[in-house]
Sequence to fold (195 residues):
Amino acid sequence: MDAARKEGRDVYDILNVKASRIQCGSEGLIFLPYLMGERSPYWNPDARACFIGLNMRHKKEHMLRAVFEGVCFNMKLIRDSFSELGYSPGEIRLIGGGAKSSLWRQIMADILDVPVVKLNFIEEATSVGAAMIGGLASGIFRNLKEATRFIKREEISVPDPGRVDIYGKLFDVFKKSYNSLVEVFMNISDFQAGL
Fold:
């Protein structure tokens, strides 16, 4: 981080470049992103984060990319839960700081197998949304469609069929990893509670 500041670069840009040098699938390294337990779709406060498949050839860059992929795999679990209920979004629209990362958007598109759209108000989205609702309620806008005319698509990441296939195979391992570790998570949580 100090090096990034000295060079006047954003540390996240540097991390994205490092992670982008690693192949899709992080050479078999999987990250379960449960740093604070899990709320959806498993609802398990005892779940814990971990790397699966770590070996001597993996470097920090592999771990970075595996973190991006693990978060997106968990998003796929959530999206698949919606699909089971009959709702399958044709695209994902991103806001927030993470939306700045073209690498993360591409990984998300490849894992979810839908286009991922970066919108123009990524960091101010909550404020813009509140202003639109306020404008709608006060009569400034006649309807929601008119209120959303300020929202623009800046970039679209389209799924790559080859990477979709690779991630599909790893997704099965991701799901099995969580299911195999449920009891271990409970044991570790109990141990940590006693510290």
